[in-house]
Amino acid sequence: MYQLSGVTKRYRRGKDTVDALAGVDLTIEDGGRLVIQGPTGGGKSTLLQMLGGLDRPTSGSVELDGVDLASLSEARLTKVRSENIGFVFQSFNLIPTLTAQENVETALVPLGVKAAERRTRAAEALESVGLGERFGHLPGEMSGGQQQRVAIARALVKRPKVLLADEPTGNLDESMRDEIMTLLEGLWEEHGLTFVMVTHDSALARRAPRLATIEKGKVKITERAA
Ligand SMILES: Nc1ncnc2c1ncn2[C@@H]1O[C@H](COP(=O)(O)OP(=O)(O)O)[C@@H](O)[C@H]1O
Ligand SMILES: [Mg+2]
């Protein structure tokens, strides 16, 4: 479970400061699905980075299962991230010189998983995103939708409890967007993930049971009846 209290993030740009997050209180239950929506520059990515322990707040606390991520050493934080949190980004962030299989396996290296098991688990993860025949392909030989599927397999191969996605369909056309969303929603349900997704797309925001609207660093929550 996530518990955020009074989270602020202040960036400095020359002599100006920007309050990307201006006092965010937010609870996300285990297995919950939350969409974060808002205008460009509203603080969506900053909030997701706080949830992922990719950056630290200026003040306030970001607790994951009772542990304040902001208080951890860099080494401990890296460990929490590699074990518990899967990331998917708009730009896929695959390594261009590695095959689909090898890209997925990279997520298991920091966990000390042996080579043979890495191979089996990566193959299973690629199957689970519908890429059974693309193991040996390089990112450049795949469509955007296929590359995003590889990135999703890489995020989930370590069996994290949390999946964080920042505009995961932002680079895809509409039909691909719907395919990837259906895949993500299916994986969320199947694995009981805590799933937080950033989007500026209202059509996607409407699909979520719980919506956090963020504007000028302030969050407003809307719950929908199931
Ligand atoms: N590393 C940074 N340095 C300075 N300003 C930043 C940095 N990251 C984000 N910002 C600023 O913080 C605000 C929120 O940014 P961001 O979280 O990326 O918004 P969103 O994802 O909603 O578009 C913006 O004004 C942005 O310019
Ligand atoms: Mg952003």
TrEMBL record:
<dbReference type="GO" id="GO:0005886">
    <property type="term" value="C:plasma membrane"/>
</dbReference>
<keyword id="KW-0547">Nucleotide-binding</keyword>
<dbReference type="GO" id="GO:0022857">
    <property type="term" value="F:transmembrane transporter activity"/>
</dbReference>
<dbReference type="GO" id="GO:0016887">
    <property type="term" value="F:ATP hydrolysis activity"/>
</dbReference>
<dbReference type="InterPro" id="IPR027417">
    <property type="entry name" value="P-loop_NTPase"/>
</dbReference>
<dbReference type="GO" id="GO:0098796">
    <property type="term" value="C:membrane protein complex"/>
</dbReference>
<dbReference type="InterPro" id="IPR015854">
    <property type="entry name" value="ABC_transpr_LolD-like"/>
</dbReference>
<dbReference type="Pfam" id="PF00005">
    <property type="entry name" value="ABC_tran"/>
</dbReference>
<dbReference type="InterPro" id="IPR017911">
    <property type="entry name" value="MacB-like_ATP-bd"/>
</dbReference>
<dbReference type="InterPro" id="IPR017871">
    <property type="entry name" value="ABC_transporter-like_CS"/>
</dbReference>
<feature type="domain" description="ABC transporter">
    <location>
        <begin position="2"/>
        <end position="226"/>
    </location>
</feature>
<dbReference type="InterPro" id="IPR003439">
    <property type="entry name" value="ABC_transporter-like_ATP-bd"/>
</dbReference>
<dbReference type="GO" id="GO:0005524">
    <property type="term" value="F:ATP binding"/>
</dbReference>
<dbReference type="InterPro" id="IPR003593">
    <property type="entry name" value="AAA+_ATPase"/>
</dbReference>
<keyword id="KW-0813">Transport</keyword>
<keyword id="KW-0067">ATP-binding</keyword>
<protein>
    <submittedName>
        <fullName>ABC transporter ATP-binding protein</fullName>
    </submittedName>
</protein>
